[in-house]
Amino acid sequence: MPSIPGTLCLFDVDGTITESRQVIKAPTLAFLSEFSEKVTIGLVGGSDYAKALEQLNGEENCRIFEFIFSENGLVARRKGELIAEQNIAKFLGEELVQDLINFSLGYMSQLKLPVKRGTFIEYRSGLINICPVGRSCSQKERKEFAKFDEEHHIRRKFVEALKERFSDTPLTFSIGGEISIDAYPKGWDKTYCLRYLDEFPTIHFFGDKTDPGGNDHEIFSSPRVIGHKVTSPEDTVKQLVQLFN
């Protein structure tokens, strides 16, 4: 039982407790492990559970988190046990899912980028991840695209095109991580996980993509949550120390 009851700290993954798509560093993990004895902690990320396991370097390290909400909370686990799961294709219907995939592939076929690799669309239970550079890019290529995107706003323009094309559907779109866009039904953002957290009167959320259009924005700005914008895993640890002494 944590020494501060009724309080939960929720963390985004990429850019918050790990570098983007990298394994958590030992000092961050050690701090969070000790911190979990004081406050209940949880993760809420856009990626699937397999990627969470990879970035936390195994199931043993996942156990310090009371909750792991994958795919924006559409796949929910508590103490390692699956407690709920949604299915985007069943909710939207196969026709809309295929329209989204076909439009996205057509749009990306016209883009000229520093490199293109494979896995441009990744279907998940709770969302569809769209990646102009391809998720099989190397870490170096990921960084090159992130820099190129910062200069040329590739993903921002893509999101604008998606919003225009699918304006009469329940789909919404947000920029996540360094290289991709998440597509999901309205309301299936990270605030979805809050339905499982009624027992916690105080919820802190820490994330890096908190500006409008980022995939942390909705939960960061939720009236149920105390939001904290961070710039790195080290900044997350620094803010936790300042908040909880």
Automatic annotation (TrEMBL):
**Protein name from the UniProt record:** Phosphomannomutase
InterPro entries (UniProt xref): HAD-like_sf, HAD-SF_hydro_IIB, HAD_sf, PMM, PMM_cap
**Pathway, per Swiss-Prot/TrEMBL?**
Nucleotide-sugar biosynthesis; GDP-alpha-D-mannose biosynthesis; alpha-D-mannose 1-phosphate from D-fructose 6-phosphate: step 2/2
Give me the residues that bind alpha-D-mannose 1-phosphate, please: 21, 124, 135, 142, 180, 182
Indicate where this protein is primarily found.
cytoplasm
Specify which residues bind Mg(2+) according to the UniProt entry for this protein: 12, 14, 208, 220
Which species is this record about? Answer: Nesidiocoris tenuis
EC numbers: 5.4.2.8
